[in-house]
Each structure stands twice: as structure tokens, then as C-alpha cells.
Amino acid sequence: MLKVYYGTLDEALYGPAWFLNNYEQSWFEDPFVQAMVVDVDKTEYKEGEVFESSVLGAIPPERLSGGVKTLISIYKNPDLIFDATSCGDNCAKWLLEIGKVADIKVTLRYAMRFPENDAFEISLENNKTIYTNRREYTLAALSVIDEEL
Amino acid sequence: MKGKHHIIVETKKIKYEFDVKRNITVIRGDSATGKTTLIELLSQYARFSERTGIRVDSDVPCLVYADGLVSWQESLSATKDSIVFIDEDFDFIKTKEFASVIKGSSNYYVLITRDYLKNLPYSINEVYGIRNSGRFNYPQQIYNEFYPLYAKRYY
Q1: CA distances from A17 to A42, A70, B142 (A)
Q2: Quick one: which of A144, B30, B83, B141 has the fewest CB in 10 Å?
Q3: Whole domain around residue A93: which residue ranges?
Q4: Contact residues on chain A for B115, CB-CB shorter than 8 A
Q5: Do A86 and B37 touch (CB under 8 A)?
Q6: Structural domains in chain A (count)
Q7: Mean pLDDT across the stretch B61-87?
Q8: How many domains, in total, are found in chain B?
Q9: Residue ranges making up the domain that contains B116
């Protein structure tokens, strides 16, 4: 399940930098990782450490977006807490998807817009409540954000 | 510094064209829209100018804040009449001290951040995203422009 804490936690890792120092080439061969990279960055994995961006041409992992670097880091390290503020709204559906296959916890410092999902489930860590309804979650999250951020 | 400044940042593959109208402009929005690429291009140009093959067209200097040997306070205080771009991983932009420095500054600031900047007096009309457009030489050259994230039609 996806757990979201609005605010800052000392142990939350900064995905774009953490990824650069910890990624493993084998991660890129995972179809789930490839799907995230295609969807968010419009970039295809080719081989080794080479990606093909629709904008930049052939690029190394270092030039993936901060959002997708953070998503990959979260997916491959569900035991760690990441600050998902580096992820834009277009990463939200992937946080929900990762949450379906693993228990993950992220921090956020803005009101990310989570989409409708066939199995919407987020634990709002600030009030320790699990929401399965997007509208109810959004209202609760906005209330927390107004108080905390 | 006063008024609107028209900026073009261009390489063979990518072009950014936008106006900076106020002393504080905020860029946020989806991942992978080219925010970091814009910062990287301006950083390279600031160091190596035309030798980079990057064209920057602006009536005032476009600078990128980077960690250095001096504090951010000293660095920004020493910068005059420029547009200063600050990327998302500098937390000092959320502080009251930064708000105070900006208030007495002749610079314009373009802040790339999704954080809520409660200490800064910026206009909701100056919060932008970056989007690709098929204008000009697409797909050989990608054309990027700023668009207002909170345009009136959305209210």
C-alpha cells in the first residue's frame, strides 16, 4: 500500500540524487521500470545504460527526469522512505501502481493530484487513516496540507 | 529591474522561448517537461558562453544559482540586474530570509519548485509549467514554452 506523509521527515531520501549514486543497470531490464520511463519521460530503454529520449536522443540514466529517477528508486527500494516532491502529477498513477505490489512510504510537500484508480488505496500518515475513496482522500490531504505546509 | 524580459534559449535540438514579467516567477508542473534541461543549458552558457553552441537571447544576464564558496546570501547580494534561476533542490527559497533578500534586490528570480512558498509575495498568474509545442521545426527541434498553470479559465 502507498503511505503518504505531507511534510518533511529527516529520513526521507532525495530521489534524483540517491538514484545517481545507487542505481543498478539490471533495474532497467524490468518491464515495470521501462513502462514508467516510457510513460513519464517519453523515453525508451535500449540496452546497457542507454535510453532513447524522444526529445534529447540517446541519453544515459543520469539524464532521466527527477520524477522517474525517484519512482524507480521507490519501486526498487520499498524499505526506504523517499521524498516524492520531485515527482510531478504525471507520476501519481505510478505511485499508486507501486503501492499495489509493495508497501511504500513517501513524503510530499505539495498537493499531488492522484488519479482515479480501480483499487485506490492510500494511507494518509499524518492522521493514520486509510482512504479507498479518492475524493475523501483529497479533502483530507488538503486539510493536512493547509495545516502542515 | 522593471518590465518584461523576453528570453530565448536555443540549441540544435531544443528551444525555449518565454517572458519573465515579475520579480518572482515560479515553474512547476509535470515531471520530464524540461525544467532541469533549461537549467543545465543556462548553466553551461554561463560558464562557456557561445563556445557551448547554445544561443541565449536576453536583454539582461540569465544566471543560475549554484552552491559555491560563498553563502547564498553573499552570492545573491553580489548579483545585480539579472534574472536568477534557482533549481528545486535549494531549501533556502522557503525561508523568510530569502524573502527579505529578494525584496531589496534588483534581480528577477525564476524558481523551479513544487513547494508552497508562503514567505514570498508572488502572483498566482506567474506560476507556469513548461510544455512542448509543434511550432517551427518540430520534430527536428523541440519548441518549449511557458504556460500559466492557474489561468483564469480554470477557476
Answers
A1: 21, 9, 27
A2: B141
A3: 2-148
A4: 85, 109-110, 149
A5: no
A6: 1
A7: 93
A8: 1
A9: 5-154
